[in-house]
Design a protein that fits this description.
The chain is an alpha+beta fold. The chain is built from three helices and eight strands. It has one domain: Dna Ligase, domain 1 (2-Layer Sandwich). The strands form two sheets. Strands 4, 5, 6, 7 and 8 form a five-stranded antiparallel sheet that branches. A three-stranded antiparallel sheet has the order 1-3-2. Strand 2 and strand 3 form a beta hairpin.
């Protein structure tokens, strides 16, 4: 039984990018769908689509590569884990990697990127980082 579906999804994205696959499939949850939407808005992935097969949902992610066939994702990392939650205030999430990276933050207003959470003046649990 899988205990951390977010870590599994990030690992699937990381492995698919290292193998230079065009498409990968993730298990569905609302948190993962919101996280993948942030990745798409920030340009780390090309697109995503939620697929339904009966009562089972999956997310199909199309990965993005640059001109030299190198993945746009340099690093993707789980920050807050089930055994150790990491919370940051609004002032601590202003930038990540000098603006080149993105933190995905779970706030009281939903799953947001770090720059959007800073604009709204709220902090929260840092789910993962990507750059």
């Amino acid at each position: 039984m899988m205990t951390d579906i977010i870590a599994d999804s990030l690992t699937r994205l990381r492995n698919a990018a290292q193998r230079r696959l065009d498409v990968t499939t993730l298990l569905h949850s609302n948190t993962i769908e919101a996280t993948v939407a942030i990745f798409a808005n920030k340009g780390y992935i090309d697109s995503y689509k939620v697929l339904e097969d009966g009562n089972k949902k999956t997310i199909q992610v199309v990965l993005k590569y640059d001109d030299k066939e190198k993945s746009v994702i340099n690093e993707i990392k789980r920050i807050s884990k089930p055994g150790r939650r990491i919370h940051k205030g609004k002032d601590e999430i202003k930038t990540f990697k000098n603006g080149y990276g993105t933190l995905v933050v779970s706030t009281s207003q939903g799953i947001l990127a770090n720059d959007e959470a800073f604009k709204r003046g709220i902090g929260g649990e840092v789910i993962c980082s990507i750059w």
